[in-house]
Automatic annotation (TrEMBL), chain A:
Record-annotated ABC transporter domain positions: 337-565
GO molecular function ontology, one term from the record: ATP binding
Coiled coil: none
PANTHER family documented for this protein: ATP-BINDING CASSETTE SUB-FAMILY B, ATP-BINDING CASSETTE SUB-FAMILY B MEMBER 6
Protein location: Cell membrane
Entry protein name: ABC transporter ATP-binding protein
Transmembrane segments: 22-44, 56-79, 130-152, 158-181, 244-265
Membrane topology category: Multi-pass membrane protein
PROSITE patterns xref list: ABC_TM1F (PS50929), ABC_TRANSPORTER_2 (PS50893)
Protein keywords: ATP-binding, Membrane, Nucleotide-binding, Transmembrane, Transmembrane helix
Gene3D superfamilies: ABC transporter type 1, transmembrane domain, P-loop containing nucleotide triphosphate hydrolases
């Protein structure tokens, strides 16, 4: 919660000027609150009670003018609110986007897809509640201040006596605030947790029935129901506490004034002044405090809890590592990639995916990686491209260790993952993503070579705007492979990058990359990729094994099994499409 | 349907129990006190001026105490009662939803069911508070108008006119605001869309080292968002300025009209103050509309919860199974689709105990429906299914759960950890052990090994204790975990395309492990793969809801129609995948 206060105060400080203007208009808005009691008192004493209703109406007319000025102030204050709130939202949105992208691209991370909801939903809650909070707090400060000032001008003693319970009520409320925030947070969490568990259970309704586990699952979700109810009850107790602080701060001043009134009248206070004082307390102070307490306890708590969640889930990623100054070899090294004694596991207790693993790829290498699902093929691709760091051993690309700046790494290798990235923008921008200086002729050549021509034509040329949603998964993959083909990096790593392409298109892509200067690693989705490659690496049970297709058929039982199950079945038994190797 | 909803609404009010009564009493008392307070305040003012009994200030203070006490109590009682009612409604609905016939449950989107359980149950849970507050909220406002009328009819007329003006001005705001909000949401949607794209391509962005550029690209529409956002505040500003002018003017008008009456001697200064307070209280009539809105929402919520509660649940018998190893008989089984079309039409099938039977047939021939009735995932519309001589519908839930297990093509994994996922179909003791801190039971590990998922699990950060949301899984891995969950079945294991996403080598391993099971339980395997059919003891060949043939694969194979079941459909275009290999060599 400290983070919330720090962030909010910091943001408000940066908005000092708009806040100043907001305060100016708020002062105008408080004008009726300042004058209401005084002018009512005058209207009565000098007008209505003195038998001169015209004079009374004149004083009230003055108050009406004040009301109009106040209304203008209200309007202007709201209009200025945007200058405070909108930049605040901008900062938050920037933070959510920056945090999500940094976290999603960190080593071994999965895309933080919840960030989209955070952006559209939580940031908006914060924007709205922040605006409400600003308005409520400044409204209270100016209105209550004006009412107190007015009261002071009528009867200084009463102003002093009234200010004490008001301050006490505010203090009580402020003291209970941290506990309220706590309760609100557990309530929101309990609600979300209930939604998640119930959703998981009902999505699997068929599975629950098939397992005969209705009771077990009902109990499990039922526990969340009870937790949610407990959180809601705690919230109700807090709300009761809140109405007590309202009693002290809002009602006690009124009681004090009522009890003191006879004494004040004996001391010479006029009937109009008594009424004026009551107007200050009953229509100035009390509603202002009420609005403050309701606003802070409602929107204010939501603001604090939601902002806290945003801040904790977007904790700014550690500063980008200073790119180590590795000597980049002057002459291109024939060794494109070298793994030495690499060991990698996903957790301290997990079995290693790779154990003391060596691999060298020279210029012109064309390696297919095969193995059953879960064997670590994609992990190897990530290690090779520096997206994951091994627990032991070294990975070097062109002689450069892979622990540096990803932008530097991108000059040495290009990784094409299974989930192709295509963004809303022109086809040309999408294709030149990794090489912005590529000229159009070069791009066109690549498009033709990899078989993207038909799609480019259908879309309306390279300048046409792409809608990622309108492309099929295969078309997106094709765009991503052309982009990678244009990249200046000599080593290309295709991590099931063509799994949505048909076998012919897949062959076209792989063969084009094989002809490209440098090296090629294909994490195979279909066994046909292995048959094309110059060398095959098998991952799976036991030690990884590297060799040519023919060698491996004789040396590796796993490989024989993989290939055999695909090729060995009778002609009639061949499945309609090549079997996927992985899951 | 509305009758069901209203009955549930009445039940929901009683669910709050004592809290609803406390709330009702407090609210009623509070409303009365609120209505009395302005009059008492007026008299207290007159008392201070020497025109009324000097006890009135004390009496007014007493009323204030009552207001504070009842308000506190009503807040507490309202919140607690709502929480309890909601929880009871949710428990009831949750048990009902889970007990629904899977067929009925499948007809509703999950989001709809969640909406009822989480959203509408909470709306209906407000029943007690809404009804009580709806009845009492009108009292102070309506009473104020009467009080104004009693004080001086001129005041009541002034007040009425002001209120109408206020309502008109507030209405105008609603239409103003929506246009600006629409543009704002569109700009926001653009940013969200770009973010979603970039997150989808996170791996590409990570590899290319273009995070900075991507952040700028996603945030590019931000200035536009700010423009529209600022516009929403300006719209709001106009409306607030109008409201800020009208509400105090109403009060001023009351003072002016009342002041006149003071001059004329119709009102005392105290009564004038009372009139001002009544006007403020009466302006609360606007909130009555809000209360009505709440009542409508609560009622709608109750109706939607009630509608879900009227769906029929599936019932179980009490029978247990005699000794046996899974003799399965289907007698005249007919299953109809929702539109009445038969999906299975009078199927008679006897599967000897311990047999592996493959179910084959073109898609849409009723294979999955046959699998569903065989283990009572659904009941046939006609005919009976018997396991070791006992009709499935007479079996107790426990007996059925222990006897039969299902592996699905797309299983949904339920549980916090991998171990809990695998344990789901087992007896409650095992489920409890798995959720506890003790070692993962041996049978869970054995099942994982048989489903060839043990290596995957052991590579996860916390092995079998890894949380499900921390274990990214492919379709094949999910299938194998779903299979491990089903392997406890003692007599009948039904695999509905349950290894379709698993590579052939692994599938071979799984088939071996299942065949090696000590009990030789009966296995029913829905498959498209010819190798699986060839390995089965018996093949049931379905065609358009009827049994076209039952026998051994090699006997059926002579029939060209049977062979056609496994033939690939003619796919135009792509050449066979093997050819490019030769081109390389």
């Amino acid at each position: 919660m400290k983070a919330v206060v720090r962030f909010t105060v910091g943001a408000l400080r940066r908005r000092a000027r708009p806040l100043g203007r907001l305060a100016g208009w708020s002062a105008a808005e408080a004008l009726p609150a300042l004058l209401a009691g005084q002018l009512t008192a005058r209207a009565l004493d000098e007008g209505f009670l003195a038998g001169r209703p015209g004079v009374g109406l004149a004083w009230l007319g003055g108050l009406a003018v004040a009301v109009v000025i106040g209304a203008i102030g209200t309007g202007r204050a709201y209009a200025r609110l945007g200058d405070v709130v909108e930049p605040f939202r901008d900062e938050l949105a920037g933070r959510v986007v920056t945090g999500a992208l940094h976290r999603s691209t960190a080593a071994g991370a999965r895309p933080d897809t919840a960030a989209v909801a955070r952006l559209t939903h939580q940031v908006e809650i914060v924007r709205d509640t922040f605006a409400g909070l600003v308005m409520v707090i400044r409204g209270f400060l100016f209105t209550a201040g004006a009412a107190l000032l007015g009261l002071f001008s009528l009867t200084p003693v009463v102003a002093g006596v009234v200010a004490v319970p008001l301050a006490a009520g505010l203090f009580l409320f402020a003291a209970a605030l941290p506990a309220m925030v706590d309760r609100q947070r557990s309530y929101v969490r309990a609600d979300e947790r209930l939604g998640e568990t119930a959703s998981a259970a009902l999505t699997g309704h068929r599975d629950v029935a098939a397992c005969g586990a209705q009771e077990i699952v009902a109990d499990r979700v039922g526990r969340q129901v009870d937790r949610q109810a407990a959180a809601e009850q705690a919230l109700a107790r807090m709300a009761a506490l809140r109405s007590l602080s309202l009693a002290v701060g809002g009602w006690l001043p009124l009681a004090v004034l009522l009890l003191a009134a006879p004494w004040l009248v004996r001391r010479g206070l006029t009937a109009g002044a008594v009424l004026g004082a009551l107007v200050y307390v009953a229509t100035g102070l009390q509603p202002a405090l009420h609005a403050l307490v309701q606003g802070v306890a409602g929107g204010g708590l939501r603001f604090a809890v939601t902002l806290d969640r945003i801040l904790s889930s977007t904790a700014i990623a550690p500063p980008v590592r200073a790119s180590p100054t590795h000597p980049v070899p002057a002459a291109p090294e024939p060794v494109r990639a070298r793994l030495r004694g690499v060991t990698f596991r996903y957790g301290p207790h997990a079995r290693p995916v790779l154990d003391d693993f060596d691999l060298t790829l020279t210029d012109g290498a064309y390696l297919a990686v095969v193995g059953p699902s879960g064997a670590g093929k994609s992990t190897l691709a990530a290690l090779l491209s520096g997206l994951l760091q091994p627990q032991a051993g070294t990975v070097r690309l062109n002689g450069v260790p892979v622990d540096g700046d990803p932008a530097v790494l991108a000059r040495h290798r290009v990784l094409i993952p299974q989930e192709a990235y295509v963004f809303t923008g022109t086809l040309l921008d999408n294709l030149r993503y990794l090489r912005p200086d590529a000229d159009e002729r070069r791009v066109t050549t690549a498009v033709d070579r990899l078989g993207l021509g038909a799609l480019a034509c259908r879309l309306g040329g390279l300048g046409a705007t792409l809608e990622p949603g309108a492309l099929s998964a295969g078309e997106r993959q094709l765009v991503a492979t052309v982009r990678a083909y244009l990249s200046p990096a000599p080593l290309a790593i295709l991590d099931e990058a063509t799994c949505h392409l048909d076998p012919t298109a897949e062959a076209t892509v792989e063969l084009a990359f094989a002809d490209r200067p440098g090296g090629l690693v294909v994490v195979a989705h279909r066994i046909s990729s292995a048959l094309r490659a110059r060398q095959v690496l098998i991952l799976g049970d036991g030690r990884p094994m590297l060799g040519r297709h023919e060698d491996l058929l004789t040396r590796s039982a796993t490989y024989r099994e993989l290939v055999g199950h695909w090729l060995g079945e009778p002609e009639t038994a061949r499945p309609p499409r090549p079997l996927p190797l992985g899951g | 349907m509305p009758a069901d909803g209203d009955r549930l609404l009445r039940q929901a009010i009683t669910y709050g129990g004592g809290w609803t009564i406390v709330l009702g009493t407090a609210a009623l008392l509070g409303a009365a006190a609120e209505l009395l307070l302005p009059a008492a305040l007026g008299l207290a003012v007159d008392a201070a001026l020497g025109d009324a009994s000097s006890w009135w200030p004390l009496a007014a203070c007493g009323i204030v105490v009552v207001i504070v006490a009842t308000d506190t109590l009503a807040t507490l009682a309202g919140g607690t009662g709502t929480a309890r009612t909601t929880a009871r409604l949710r428990h009831r609905l949750l048990r009902h939803l889970l007990a629904l016939d899977p067929r009925h449950a499948a007809r509703r989107p999950v989001g709809d069911l969640i909406g009822r359980l989480v959203g509408q149950a909470a709306d209906a849970g407000q029943a007690g508070a809404t009804v009580v507050l709806g009845l009492t909220a009108v009292l102070p406002s309506a009473g104020s108008v009467v009080a104004l009328l009693l004080l001086d009819w001129r005041l009541a007329v002034t007040f009425g006119a002001g209120l109408v003006l206020l309502a008109v001005l507030l209405r105008a705001f609603l239409t103003d605001a929506s246009a600006a909000a629409g543009d704002y949401l569109r700009a926001q949607g653009r940013i969200a869309g770009r973010l979603a794209e970039a997150l989808h391509g996170a791996r590409t962005i990570a590899a290319a080292g273009t995070v900075r550029a991507e952040i700028d690209r996603v945030l590019a529409p931000l200035p536009e968002l700010r423009t529209h956002g600022t516009r929403t505040w300006t719209t709001l500003a106009r409306a607030s300025a109008r409201t800020a002018a009208v509400a105090p003017m109403l009060q001023l008008a009351i003072v002016a009209v009342g002041g006149w009456s003071v001059t004329e001697g119709r009102l005392t200064p105290g009564q004038l103050f009372a009139a001002v307070q009544y006007a403020a209280l009466g302006a609360g009539l606007g909130t009555v509309v809000a209360t009505l809105n709440r009542l409508v929402r609560t009622r709608a919520g109750a109706q939607r919860v009630a509608a879900a509660l009227t769906e029929p649940v599936r019932t179980y018998g009490t029978a247990t199974l005699p000794a046996g190893t899974g003799r399965l008989e289907l007698c005249g089984v007919t299953v109809r689709a929702d539109d009445g079309r038969p999906v299975l039409d009078g199927i008679d099938l006897r599967v000897p105990a311990g047999t592996t039977i493959a179910i084959v047939g073109p898609s849409g021939s009723g294979k999955s429906s046959l699998a569903a009735v065989a283990g009572r995932l659904r009941d046939p519309d006609a005919g009976a299914v018997l396991l070791d001589g006992v009709p499935l519908c007479r079996l107790s839930r426990t007996a059925l759960r222990d006897a039969a297990g299902y592996g699905f093509e797309r299983p949904v994994l339920i549980g916090d950890t991998i171990a809990e996922v695998i344990a789901l179909g087992r007896d409650p003791e095992t489920v409890a052990t798995v959720a506890g801190p003790d070692r993962v039971p041996r049978e869970i590990v054995t099942a994982a090994r048989a489903a060839a998922i043990d290596e995957f699990v052991e590579r996860l950060p916390d092995g079998y204790r890894t949380r499900l949301d921390a274990a990214p899984m492919s379709g094949g891995e999910t299938q194998r975990l779903g299979l491990a969950r089903a392997l406890h079945a003692r007599r009948l294991l039904i695999l509905d395309d349950a290894t379709s996403s698993v590579d052939t080598a692994t599938e071979h391993r799984i088939a071996g492990a299942i065949a090696a099971h000590a009990d030789r339980r009966t296995r029913m395997i829905v498959t498209h793969r010819v190798a699986t059919a060839a390995a089965a003891d018996l093949v049931a060949w379905l065609d358009d809801g009827r049994l076209r043939g039952v026998g051994r694969h090699r006997d059926l194979w002579r029939d060209p129609d049977y062979r056609a079941v496994f033939q690939p459909p003619a796919v135009p275009g792509p050449a066979p995948a093997g050819q490019p290999v030769e081109a390389v060599r």
